[in-house]
């Protein structure tokens, strides 16, 4: 079976806080449940979070729960943080860019350079309302995640 090709998803938000502050939030994986509408809890294997750190997420959509396993694949302090989800092959990234006013532009991306694994698209089709529906939910979730990180960073 071949992987299902999908577009890169991304969203951007400007935060009135320096990259160091935003970095401390986006790399705090156990706190992701406070920002992402899909993540219920994250368990880390090894701390502090760094390149190679592995995590187990418990995700939820309505009455459905499922685990995902991930590994940190990019760790460039104050610039880019990304982890690859073993179960579907996607990479979730936060790219931080300093702004002229001392703030940070945050770009969140879901990349799938090798496509999404067939088991994942099958589950999306049969259990999660289809790939297009689930992708739309991911887009909405990215917006919510960025808005919640912004609110926390600007406190």
Automatic annotation (TrEMBL):
InterPro entries tied to this protein: Polyketide_cyclase/dehydratase, START-like_dom_sf
Record Pfam families: Polyketide_cyc2
Designated name of the protein: SRPBCC family protein
Organism per entry: Nocardioides aestuarii
């Amino acid at each position: 079976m071949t992987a299902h090709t999908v577009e890169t998803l991304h969203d951007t938000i400007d935060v009135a806080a320096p990259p160091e502050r935003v970095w401390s939030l986006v790399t705090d994986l156990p706190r992701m449940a406070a920002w992402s509408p899909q993540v219920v809890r994250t368990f880390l294997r090894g701390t502090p979070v760094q390149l190679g750190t592995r995590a187990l997420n418990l995700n939820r959509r309505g009455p459905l729960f499922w685990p995902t396993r991930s590994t940190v694949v990019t760790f460039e302090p104050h610039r880019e943080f990304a982890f690859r989800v073993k179960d579907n092959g996607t990479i979730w990234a936060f790219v931080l860019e300093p702004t002229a006013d001392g703030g940070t532009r945050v770009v969140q991306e879901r990349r799938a350079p090798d496509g999404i694994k067939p088991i994942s698209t099958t589950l999306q089709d049969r259990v999660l309302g289809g790939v297009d529906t689930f992708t739309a939910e991911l887009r909405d979730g990215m917006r919510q995640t960025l808005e919640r990180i912004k609110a926390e960073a600007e406190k």
